[in-house]
Amino acid sequence: MDTGISFLFIGQLPTWLQGILLRNGPGMHTIGDTTYNHWFDGLALLHSFTFKNGEVYYRSKYLRSDTYNYNVEANRIVVSEFGTMAYPDPCKNIFAKAFSYLSHTIPEFTDNCLINIMKTGDDFYATSETNFIRKINPQTLETLEKVDYSKYVAVNMATSHPHYDSAGNILNMGTSIVDKGKTKYVLFKIPPSAPEKEEKKSCFKHLEVVCSIPSRSLLHPSYYHSFGITENYIVFVEQPFKLDIVKMATAYIRGVNWASCLAYHKEDKTWFHFIDKKTKEEVSTKFYTDAMVFFHHINAYEEDGHIIFDIIAYTDNSLYDMFYLKNLGKDFEKNNKVTSIPTCKRFVVPLQYDKDAEVGSNLVTLPSTTTAIKEKDGSIYCQPEILCEGIELPRINYDYNGKKYKYVFATEVQWSPVPTKIIKFNTQTKEMLHWGEDHCWPSEPIFVPSPDAREEDDGIVLTCVVMSDPKEAPFLLVLDAKTFKELGRAIVDVEMHLDLHGMFIPEKELKTETE
Ligand SMILES: CC1=C(/C=C/C(C)=C/C=C/C(C)=C/C=O)C(C)(C)CCC1
Ligand SMILES: [Fe+2]
């Protein structure tokens, strides 16, 4: 089978590194004479680096979504995306037919799955935040069937950042809008495989709802991009960055994009929800913090009756505005300064606290500068500790997900939307290691543990580096995760796009080729 284009690796690749680094992101922003408004609208472009016997192979392919095919066929944008409303949108016929109930006015969304990669058993999917995911072949990058979550669970959208348990089950969350008069956040579990005897095997048919959390507001559910898990709990943060359902239901006729249906209510609070995985019940205490906007959870864990969780938060929603293509023009590094720097915040929430504690007392008993103040009505107001600033696209050693951990690998974003460095941050000592070179725009760094790993950072870090100067060739960079020193790089003399998220698939997790 064709493995892609081979490139020379300069340096020393660990011999155990065998498998595929598979990444996703927006790749095509212009179709015919039409251009999307927002960077998150671009047609999904998958790319992969295959590591085989010391060699590195590169390939890339557009996701052949229905959206891609409709657009290419029409030679213009005909399907609406996050920042671009398109006319006529073939998906919207369904919308026009079903205008009778508010619950039916949420139109069919795009299947342009450009954000991340998800694994179910032996299968891989490109994901976004709508109700659709697209199966892909991780070796050839071919597009396979479309899966509609809403056929299996009542959700209108689901996150692109699912979690996995040690048995390989997927845990994900989605929002169910005005269904049977209620808007809720639904937590669901997908097993890695379907029973052997089943004819048309689909793990989605075996999807199970774990529980649902009612939205505080019927017509203004929170927007969320990720959630957290610990050994015993699911951590869901209901932020005051919200979808406006009436605006969404009328967006098409008003000629505005989906992005304009999102609003930050800075006068509101941010509510924390903790769901016990065993009982599937929510912890009844009301925990909250000040208004904020955030996208990525880093990790969460339990310690001495507390839940500790780390997220990257903002003081406004300028992140989404920054990625309008008009703001990402030629001199964007100079012209497009962020108004809110990404801040890595740690919340320490006491689940088991002294019920007789006085109003006004801090219930955090761990050594920490965070606070959780008991209020008159029994709710608890939490204030975080700032771990560091200027990082985004965080990754961890996933073997430590839900557990006490030390290391975050992330991109460094200072005063520009495009990262110029990657970092390794020790959440305990606050030490930070950097990697950066002139003209380099590195992608989300992915940690791959070595097979004989004993410590959390025994392994390597992979990142794709795009050059700000188009005359220079991009490369795949391999760093030693412990020292953050370069082990080597494969210079790939191709046009490479800036991407979002991805995963490393070890060789042993790849289906053996039968074709
Ligand atoms: C199309 C569409 C959506 C798409 C959202 C996207 C594409 C978000 C991407 C977020 C990223 C990449 C964040 C990074 O931190 C919504 C608003 C869910 C709902 C309406 C239809
Ligand atoms: Fe993300």
TrEMBL record:
Instruction: Give the highest taxon in the source lineage.
Output: Eukaryota
Is Metal-binding among this UniProt entry's keywords? yes
For binding Fe cation, which residues are annotated in this chain's numbering? H161, H225, H296, H501
Record text on cofactor binding: Binds 1 Fe(2+) ion per subunit.
Q: Which organism is it from?
A: Mycteria americana (Wood stork)
Family classification: Belongs to the carotenoid oxygenase family.
InterPro entries (alphabetical): Carotenoid_Oase (IPR004294)
One Pfam match, by short name? RPE65
Q: Which GO terms describe its molecular function?
A: beta-carotene 15,15'-dioxygenase activity; carotenoid dioxygenase activity; metal ion binding
**GO biological process terms on file:** carotene catabolic process; retinal metabolic process
- Which keywords appear in this protein's UniProt record, sorted alphabetically? Iron, Metal-binding
What is the official name of this protein in its record?
Answer: Beta,beta-carotene 15,15'-monooxygenase
PANTHER family linked: BETA,BETA-CAROTENE 15,15'-DIOXYGENASE, BETA-CAROTENE DIOXYGENASE
Residues annotated as signal peptide: none
Q: Which cofactor does it need?
A: Fe(2+)
